[in-house]
Design a protein that fits this description.
The protein has about 325 residues and is mainly beta. Helix content is about 5%, strand content about 45%. The protein has a seven-stranded antiparallel β-sheet, with no helix packed on it. A hairpin with a 5-residue loop joins strand 12 and strand 13. The protein is globular and about 60 Å long. Pfam families: Pirin (PF02678), Pirin_C (PF05726).
Length: about 325
């Protein structure tokens, strides 16, 4: 049998993915204590390029936020995002009239479809201690037939996301968090209705894998003709197929073959993305994704004309005060956690 490892690559700021995924943004920031407005103090903001702060000064970034870190309202069209917040919180608001605060293991699934405005701010809810953030945002493409579906967003609350625990022959633990797809017989929560992942044959798999120090874990063989990438973003090293893989690398894998991993002396954290390629032309311009230049022009024209419904909230970097975890959906329904 051939080697299941196709390529090993070093991780950058935006992690390289393969069709049908577009990229994965990884945000790890050790934010300071927050003020009443849910942002850092004025003293902490001195010397930063507010509005475009990506330098990770003192271990954290403001991104495009001026007062609160994060991404004030901006448009998306033609694809979907899966946002997993393992530490800290994200405040979502959008042009559909929906909003919510999620974090501590929650995930949000948003199908942008024909177009939506939304903001993602990272409120510093703790005023008496630091506010660490660990967030992944995965961009998943949509096929041509779904590029103009109605936008939709859904919450996957951490209490409901399946987490499978397995021990190896030495009693060492592996945890598999199934955000999309299935691990063995353990199926994920449903995605948004028009998602690429809503059709089983597309084989969309998103797992977060945690390995105890010294643990052995075998990534099971998946479907043929799927693209599979494993991201090793925290730990010491992994041994596999006669190689040692250091932290901060991704592995392009042959999806139809299993892969045995032997962890090093520190806990390892990994993310798996897998799916059948769409195999359609991709034209990306900033936050828009189309199949041709002509379709891209249509998206831009539509945004200029309609603003995708406009911004119904009082601020571009809108946050949700002292609310706990919640979701208010476009139909008016409310969920509190």
């Amino acid at each position: 049998m051939s080697n299941p490892i196709i390529k090993v690559k070093e991780l950058g700021f935006h992690w390289e993915t393969k069709d049908p995924f577009m990229f994965c943004a990884f945000h790890q920031d050790n934010y300071p204590k927050g003020e009443a407005h849910k942002g850092p103090s004025k003293d902490a903001l001195k010397g930063r390029f507010l509005g475009n702060d990506f330098q990770k000064k003192e271990g954290w970034r403001m991104y495009h936020g001026q007062e609160v870190p994060g991404f004030p309202y901006h448009p998306h069209a033609g694809f979907e995002t899966i946002t997993l917040v393992e530490q800290g919180f994200a405040d979502h608001s959008d042009s559909m009239g929906a909003k919510g605060r999620f974090g501590q293991g929650d995930a949000q699934w948003m199908t942008a479809g024909k177009g939506v405005l939304h903001s993602e701010m990272f409120p510093l809810v703790n005023q008496d201690k630091e506010n660490p953030l660990l967030l992944f945002q995965i961009w998943l493409n949509l096929p041509k037939r779904s590029k103009k579906v109605e936008p939709h967003y859904k919450m996957l609350w951490h209490e409901e996301i399946p987490i499978v625990e397995e021990k190896d022959e030495n009693g060492k633990l592996a945890k598999i968090k199934v955000i999309a797809g299935h691990y063995k017989s353990n199926k994920s929560l449903d995605p948004t209705p028009d998602s690429l992942a809503a059709v089983a044959k597309n084989d969309i798999q998103v797992w977060r894998i945690t390995l105890e120090a010294g643990a052995e874990f075998t990534l099971p063989a998946g479907e043929t003709k799927s693209n599979r990438v494993l991201f090793f973003y925290e730990g010491e090293k992994l041994k596999t197929e006669g190689f040692e893989i250091p932290e901060g690398h991704s592995l392009d894998l042959e999806s139809s073959q299993e892969l045995k991993l032997v962890n090093g002396n520190k806990k390892a954290e990994l993310l798996l993305l897998q799916g059948k390629p769409i195999n359609e032309p991709v034209v990306q311009q900033g936050p828009f994704v189309a199949n041709s230049r002509e379709e891209m022009s249509e998206i831009i024209s539509d945004y200029q004309r309609t603003q995708f419904g406009g911004w119904p909230w009082p601020k571009a970097e809108f946050t949700h005060g002292d609310e706990g975890r919640f979701a208010l959906f476009a139909d008016g329904s409310l969920v509190k956690k």
